[in-house]
Design goal:
By secondary structure, the protein is mainly alpha-helical. It has 2 domains: about 20-270, Fic-like fold (Orthogonal Bundle); about 280-360, Winged helix-like DNA-binding domain superfamily/Winged helix DNA-binding domain (Arc Repressor Mutant, subunit A). The chain has 15 helices and 5 strands. It has helices spanning about 20-40, 45-65, 70-80, 85-110, 115-125, 155-170, 180-195, 200-215, 225-230, 235-245, 250-290, 295-305, 310-315, 320-335, 350-360; strands spanning about 140, 150, 305-310, 340, 345-350. The strands form 2 sheets. Strands 3-5-4 form a 3-stranded antiparallel β-sheet. A two-stranded antiparallel sheet has the order 1-2. A hairpin with a 2-residue loop joins strand 4 (about 340) and strand 5. The longest helix has about 40 residues, at about 250-290. The chain starts with 19 loop residues before the first helix and ends with a helix. The mean pLDDT is about 90.
Length: about 375
């Protein structure tokens, strides 16, 4: 049996987590996150942000695991879930669904993040039953050299006990007087070190991040996703993760995570601002050019579904298929969307919005 190379500590660890470097990074992260929270509330339909940003996070988080898809494949998989899809697009769509499942459970449990929720997220991501690891043999290896970098706990009872303790730390706001953002960094490291699932731990761990920020009301809805930043700084991410295990360097790890929050908050804020500006421009044009079909629900549909189709309008607007089809063709003629055909079906693309996701502001 493989022997763990790191004794997982009780949380919070016995380390100075409020150094000058940490406090400076914390102040910056909290300011940026507070601004993001306030600005996100200015979007009239919060479902627009949950759906569109969750899909972008799903794409970025999957890329951390070397699951790569294009924006077109991504949106088409949402458009035609019943049709043939690229494997990567299916994986990404499942991740988006897992984020929404976690948020739904958070609302249902009045702010609790339970191990049952994490297990159900894992099952949805992997498309199978099961839960925490119950057989030994798991080791994390360097992708390039194949060398063993870290051996997580191997005993199933130890894994279950560690996850129970972690759930208590996550949900007990009196467990310490640490700032929630520092706690998030500790929680993420602890989860990744326990490595409780046979597969998918990175993705589940990144979903846990945003659920925790929402649980602590640092966000109203889950719209801050760190995967793009982690993907861009992957070497630093893994280096700081391992440095805690090797030398107890919690300070550098916490500063890294706080920097990730600050940078991601700023870029997400830019994206939300750009979405809001686009919505305002389209709303003005619709009211001027197509007042007979304009409604807030129609505007929301065009931004909640960058690729839309007749069925989406039927569901969102409560109109007949004939009316929905007529609306979309009128929108296409006036340049609000671009009409495409897939087999016998038509679909319509909000091209400026898709360009925003493809070209920036970069998350």
């Amino acid at each position: 049996m493989l022997k763990p190379t790191y004794k997982i500590p009780e949380l919070p660890p016995r380390a100075d987590l409020e150094t000058i470097s940490v406090l400076k990074a914390l102040a910056t992260a909290n300011r940026a996150l507070a601004e993001l929270k306030g600005r996100a509330a200015s979007i009239p339909n919060q479902g627009i942000l949950i759906d569109t940003l969750a899909l972008q996070e799903a794409k970025a988080s999957s890329e951390v695991e070397n699951i790569v898809t294009t924006q077109d494949e991504l949106f088409r998989s949402e458009l035609f879930p019943e049709g043939p899809q690229a494997g990567a697009a299916k994986e990404v769509a499942l991740y988006r669904d897992a984020i929404k499942l976690g948020y739904q459970r958070l609302v249902e449990t009045q702010g609790l993040i339970t191990n049952r929720t994490l297990i159900d997220i894992f099952r949805l991501l992997k498309g199978r039953s099961g839960g925490f690891r119950n057989t030994p043999g798991t080791a994390l290896r360097n992708e390039t050299t194949g060398d063993t970098v870290y051996v997580p706990p191997q005993d199933q009872h130890e894994i279950a006990d560690l996850m129970s303790a972690l759930a208590h730390f996550v949900n007990d706001d009196t467990a310490s007087d640490l700032d929630p953002l520092i706690k998030m960094a500790l929680i993420h490291h602890q989860f990744e070190s326990i490595h409780p699932f046979p597969d998918g731990n990175g993705r589940v761990g990144r979903i846990l991040n945003v659920l925790y920020l929402t649980r602590t009301e640092l966000l109203d809805i889950p719209v801050l996703y760190l995967s793009r930043y982690i993907n861009r700084t992957k070497a630093d991410y893994y280096r700081h993760l391992q440095a805690v295990r090797d030398t107890g360097d919690w300070e550098s790890w916490v500063v890294y995570m706080l920097t990730a929050v600050a940078e991601t908050s700023k870029t997400t804020l830019g994206l939300i601002e750009a979405i809001r500006d686009q919505m305002a421009g389209v709303k003005h044009r619709l009211q001027e050019e197509l007042p007979k079909i304009y409604s807030q629900d129609l505007l929301n549909n065009l931004f909640r579904h960058p690729y839309t189709r007749t069925e989406f309008l039927v569901n969102d607007l409560g109109v007949t298929r004939q009316t929905a089809s007529k609306y979309l063709d009128v929108l296409a003629r006036h340049g609000f969307v671009v009409k495409h055909q897939a087999g016998r079906s038509n679909y319509y693309i909000n091209a400026p919005l898709v360009a925003l996701f493809m070209d920036g502001p970069e998350l």
